[in-house]
Amino acid sequence: MHSQPNALPLAFQSPVYYNQASRHPQPNTTTELSMNIDNKIIWQIAAGDGKTTHYAKQCIQQDVVVFGPGRYGPWPECEIPMLQDTTQVPPWTKTKAGIIKRFAETVSPGDIVVLRVGTQHIYAVGEVVGKYRHSNLFSNVQGWDLQHYRRVRWLWYLNGEPEVFPVYTLKLGSSVQYLISPQVRQWLEDLDVPQQAYNRPLCSL
Question: Where along the chain do its domains lie?
Fold first, then answer.
């Protein structure tokens, strides 16, 4: 059973650009720009298991994408204690440590993040800003220890509801992996994003 998560402040106050007819962002007295994904690395990053609970809304509110386990400290210092933790059942694997390494070292500023839950729901699309960080602010998010985080300027999201694709459009497996779905890539290319979304300041943590 998950422990009761710490309350997260509603720090993200930017307007929601939502069009009921098209389910695409709409201008808010600003110019719309098509999302340019040419020569961009695009990641699909999971925000929960998609079965009982998820933390996509917290990521959007905080302008972050988070990952765990984070209780062993920042990368790379966390790798050895994580793999040597004999109390963890089942034990953590080198594969899991490799995903944390990818999140910390391979994901880079300017990359695009597609925030997914399960294989068919996308809650937000954004651009990575700045370097990898670790903070106990995210030590208990919906019961998960997710202290590894990256700042993300969310460019598109719906008002608490996901964009829905056919089942298995998004790949299971690694929680941090390259997006390869042609259908989602085309959807990204068709998104119109208000110009002010690219320039807005990140919320304070």
Answer: 53-199
